[in-house]
Specification:
single chain, alpha+beta, Jelly Rolls, 3 domains, six-stranded mixed β-sheet, 17% helix, 28% strand
Length: 454
């Protein structure tokens, strides 16, 4: 018996059905934004990549990644940032995972998933597929209504007048006073949080004895409970600004940098008065065209301390930096290893729990610089480079924040120990004494012809 052949149309329908089934299955296996990519973005990226993003040291993320349309537009660049390890930005080596607050490591599986999402066409998927209760690794992701990441400040200060940066300005480091509003701060107060709000990306960094340091990549200062900095009753807050921009026509801008403070409340106890040391190293010269110049320095720890955080600082030629601790018995420990230093992201590495460092220890600091053509950020590899304040100079700093281990037991609202009060007052006085204060209300730009000072 001969079996009749199936009509051609029937065979074609079967082939099309099989192809459609295969395509549906392939799409089902392809990551989608809501089911797969969004949870990874929420965990690793959205702390910065959101609408109204945080201004971290004068820079902010250019797009939100919790919105599909924006994420799809930026998908090719997202892949490139992941493949090159440019994002998420974080300098500490993988060996330090779990040691520092706000770390920005991304797991390989999460990175591979995002790349697969991009390669698969950046599909949207079904919004109902979004997992709930996604844990973020970078803290809160919503700007409070106050407009400050520290919450509603107890005190806000800003420049008396906008600071004008003319077209011809490239690099400038003025010291400026922010007046305290009358009646807003009449008694010494203990700072629990401080936030610098730079006026724009041309603000390279800000240094204050009370607010710490504001540089690209650093957010607000939040001290651990019982740790604090005393802000004396003073009509001014003094800050050292560092502006850097292209000196071209049409580049002139006005800056109105602000700062906000949250204070401890009466009855709170301050056990550890925060101290800082820049630990700068000078007196070296980086040869022209040198690809891996090394600089070393040491610091002797004379009393038992708790180390709160470390902030390495170099400029365009900075390549790598390491803090090693030698204990009194000779044992060595690497506290921080930054193998690929990025001038655009100058993080403060704050311990999850302050680290005990015994008296008699020695802190060893090592910096490496790339002054060759292979460094794409290098302003001029043909020039020798020394320590200096300009962005085109170099620095080898290893700032630390710490406090003696002996608890002070200072009760907020009760009389402040005289030694603490005197030291807090002298800190700002020293800064004013050795600085040429800039008056933003004066219509005088003769400073453009003078050498900038740190």
């Amino acid at each position: 018996m001969t079996i009749p052949a199936k009509p051609l149309s029937t065979l074609m329908l079967a082939v099309f059905a099989l192809a459609a089934f295969t395509q549906v299955n392939a799409q089902a296996d392809t990551p989608t934004f809501y089911a797969d990519a969004l949870p990874v973005f929420q965990k690793n990226c959205v702390a910065c990549h959101q609408d109204n993003p945080p201004d971290v040291g004068g820079i902010f993320a250019p797009m939100p990644l919790d919105e599909f349309e924006q994420a799809k537009i930026w998908a090719p660049l997202i892949k490139n940032a992941l493949v090159t390890n440019y994002m998420p930005p974080w300098g500490a080596h993988e060996r330090h995972r779990g040691q520092f607050k706000g770390e920005r490591y991304i797991d390989k599986a999460e990175k591979d998933l995002l790349i697969a999402w991009v390669d698969g066409g950046a599909l949207e998927g079904d919004p109902s597929d979004t997992p709930h209760n996604v844990l973020t690794s970078n803290g809160g992701t919503t700007l409070p209504e106050s407009g400050w990441w520290i919450g509603d400040p107890d005190l806000v200060v800003q420049f008396e007048e906008e600071v004008y940066l003319p077209d011809e300005l490239e690099d400038w480091q003025p010291t400026i006073q922010m007046p305290v509003p009358e009646g807003a701060h009449e008694n010494p107060a203990w700072i629990s949080r401080a936030e610098l709000d730079p006026g724009g990306p041309w603000v390279h960094h800000i240094v204050s004895s009370h607010m710490g340091v504001g540089v690209p990549g650093r957010g607000p200062f939040t001290y651990p409970e019982g740790w604090g900095v005393l802000l004396p009753e003073d009509p001014f807050i003094t800050v050292n600004m560092h502006y850097h921009k292209d000196p071209v026509a049409g580049s002139a801008v006005n800056d109105l940098t602000r700062a906000g403070f949250k204070f401890y409340e009466s009855g709170d106890v301050i056990d550890h008065v925060v101290e800082t040391n820049l630990l700068p190293h000078r007196g070296w010269t980086i040869p022209a065209n040198h690809p891996n110049y090394e600089v070393n320095n040491t610091f002797d720890v004379e009393e038992d301390i708790y180390l709160l955080s470390m902030g390495p600082h170099m400029h365009y030629r900075g390549k790598a930096m390491r803090y090693d601790l030698e204990y009194p018995d000779g044992e060595m420990e690497t506290l921080l290893w930054v193998p690929d230093y990025d001038f655009n992201w100058q993080f403060l590495y704050e311990y999850e729990e302050p680290k005990y460092v015994p008296a008699g220890s020695t802190l060893h600091m090592s910096w490496w610089f790339d002054n060759s053509e292979g460094n794409r950020f290098n302003p001029d590899p043909s020039q020798e480079v020394t320590y200096g304040p300009a962005t085109t100079d170099e620095m080898a700093n290893a700032r630390i924040y710490y406090a003696p281990t002996t608890p002070r037991g200072i009760v907020v609202g009760e009389p402040i120990p005289e030694d603490v009060l005197i030291r807090a007052r002298e800190e700002d006085e020293r800064r004013r004494e050795f600085a040429n204060l800039f008056d933003p209300t004066a219509d005088d730009f003769s400073w453009l012809e003078e050498d900038s000072q740190d």
